[in-house]
Amino acid sequence: xxxxxxxxxxxxxxxxxxxxxxxxxxxxxxxxxxxxxxxxxxxxxxxxxxxxxxxxxxxxxxxxxxxxxxxxxxxxxxxxxxxxxxxxxxxxxxxxxxxxxxxxxxxxxxxxxxxxxxxxxxxxxxxxxxxxxxxxxxxxxxxxxxxxxxxxxxxxxxxxxxxxxxxxxxxxxxxxxxxxxxxxxxxxxxxxxxxxxxxxxxxxxxxxxxx
Length: 211
Hints:
- By secondary structure, this protein is of the alpha/beta class.
- It has one domain: 3-Layer(aba) Sandwich (Rossmann fold), CATH 3.40.50.150.
- Helices cover 34% and strands 29% of the residues.
- It has 7 helices and 9 strands; from the N terminus they run αααβαβαββαβββαββ.
- It has a 7-stranded mixed sheet, sandwiched between helices. A two-stranded antiparallel ribbon has the order 6-7.
- Helix 6 links the parallel strand 4 and strand 5.
- The radius of gyration is 16 Å and the shape is globular.
């Protein structure tokens, strides 16, 4: 089985638990605001990629009810959570490595923590795909779990489910974005949520399509 598909299967089995645990987090709200403020005026199309239960899409929808918002994930169970929790959005099953298959050009993409589940080659492919679906001067809000690359690999939950996580230093994440054709607007680090399974540091980067 593809390593990422195994991770997706784990999220499928635990979608309701994950949604109850993380849907109502507010610690990233200021970053969502910065993302929305960087968008062009007028009608916009927004993508919540690797959307999980739709918590990012919910915030975007609350502030920009006029926007077309697509919530995309590879987990059908997560998409069911998003559809139930965020009325009025479009949900699509998509592999992040093939985002252009959506056939839509977006003014903004929020990609929260999906990058942490892709190995180096696939992570670069995903960023290039995001660049491809963004309109000129489109905006990307990226969140990823920081850490030492040597800690990457298989992780097993207490229930015996497996996920494959990949850690990167903040400077490496920004270098990947620049290589994919983005200019960095700003980067910050925040502590992981208090109810997270383990303590970590999150890297939040706002970037604009430049190439």
